[in-house]
Structure formats: C-alpha cells, structure tokens
Write a structure and sequence with these properties.
The chain has about 140 residues and is an alpha+beta fold. It has a single domain, classed as Nuclear Transport Factor 2, Chain: A. The chain has a six-stranded mixed beta sheet. The longest helix has 16 residues.
C-alpha cells in the first residue's frame, strides 16, 4: 500500500505543477477534509473545507489570482500508516505586496480507496502572513 500511496502523492504534485487542476481534483475523495495550517490567511477560522469544490474555490482559485509563479516543490515523500508525509517548499511572489515567498512546508496526506481523503498543511504562517501583507504606500 505504501508504494501506491507514494505514487498517488507524486501524481498529485506533478499535476499541480503542470497546472492541471481538474486532474488534481480528480484525485480527491468527494468528501476530502482539507485543513490549512493554523494562522494561514486563506483559512482564518480554522474550519476544514469539505469536498473538492470547496478546495477549488477557497484555495486554488485564490492562489491563481493572488500569486505570480506560485510553486509547490516536494522534496521528500515518506510513507505513513494511512498515507504520505510530503516535505518541501513553497515559492512565488504575492502580487499585492510584490514580496517573494520561499518557505518550508509539510503536507500530511491521508489516503483511502485510491483517493486523498484528508490533507493537513504545516507551514511557517508568520512568514506567509508577512509576505501576504500589502506593502505600505
């Protein structure tokens, strides 16, 4: 199972890197539970998003509108009991502040039935917030 889970995780990041968002969403369980790191500006209330459409509208579409060159760079894939731990980096430039981001991240992916059923992000949210704060006039 761990080899197939790692293959699924690698497919996810390959599709995201290619900009194939429909392909990414197809890898999600219809009831995927998506959680950003506490303090992430995109999910300030901390409530999970449920389902691929919620992730699309509340995150992916906003990333596309808010960032230039946003990239997720996975570096390691480690099998876990129920999925995969992915460690890597985020890079990009936040459009409204013109500040560049280069920050370490970790994603915990839970899998079942050949789909991603749960996503948990960990990232330095202080750095993320600083980059996403509009530049002073």
């Amino acid at each position: 199972m761990s080899d197939s889970n790692i293959a699924l995780a690698k497919r996810l990041y390959t599709l995201f890197g290619q900009g194939d968002i429909p392909g990414v969403l197809a890898l999600f369980d219809p009831a995927i539970e998506w959680r950003e790191a506490e303090g992430n500006p995109y999910q300030p209330d901390g409530a999970p998003w449920i389902g691929p459409d919620a992730v699309l509208t509340k995150l992916f579409m906003r990333i596309g509108a808010d960032w230039d060159g946003f990239t997720v760079i996975p570096q390691t894939f480690t099998a876990t009991e129920h999925g995969v731990l992915v460690e890597g980096r985020y890079t990009g430039t936040y459009k409204s502040s013109a500040r560049a981001l280069d920050v370490q991240m970790a994603h915990v992916l839970t899998m079942g039935g050949g789909h991603i059923t749960r996503f948990q992000q960990y990232v330095d949210t202080a750095t993320l917030q600083a980059v996403m704060t509009p530049a002073a006039s």
